[in-house]
Amino acid sequence: METTTRRAPVIAIDGPSGAGKGSVSRAIAQALKCRYVDTGAMYRAVAWMALHDGLALDDEAALGRLATEAELVLDQQTVSVEGHDVTRLIRTADIDAAAARVARIPAVRDALVARQRAYTDAGGVVMEGRDIGTAVFPGADVKIFLDASPDERASRRASDAAHGMGGEAANLSDVASALAARDQSDRTRQSSPLVMADDAVLVDTTGVGLDGVVARVLDIVRKRLGTAP
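RE: above sequence
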């Protein structure tokens, strides 16, 4: 009898900053024993390297080459570019703003989307970002769009030390303004704007703890994959 081997699943998790994509995606990847890929870290790494090399953030040709040619390594815990461990260096408000500018450049997006698609060569993947279900993997097995109220997203980001906004530096009003600016940039960019895919499932994380969100997303994923008990 002929048998077919089902390819490893691709789970796309999109949404704006502060919606909980990172924590939820890591938990889903661990539960499904899939690779976790944070595409936002890739744009941040390119932005960091551009600033490190003194490149103008509107130089499409130079940034496109950088995104194409730079040695960029992501594993489950660390991010490095050209041998520099930038895991913590890319989680700052300045890099967030720089990454938003870099992400608007079509040549950068084209180069990084190609890299992102290559991650499925090694098996199943849970990939988080802003255009995974619409541009990177429009044929993903499961598409989730995480969102939360602007106030909740700002509160989360303000208390998130991983983004360099914890402690006394976290002024909620400033964080809310920065998130609103990032949302505007992401939703209006010409190349792959932030938008929910037509076939994505919206999960509102407002007022819901991490465990509750993970449980809900896992239930959706398992039902879509046909592995629910």
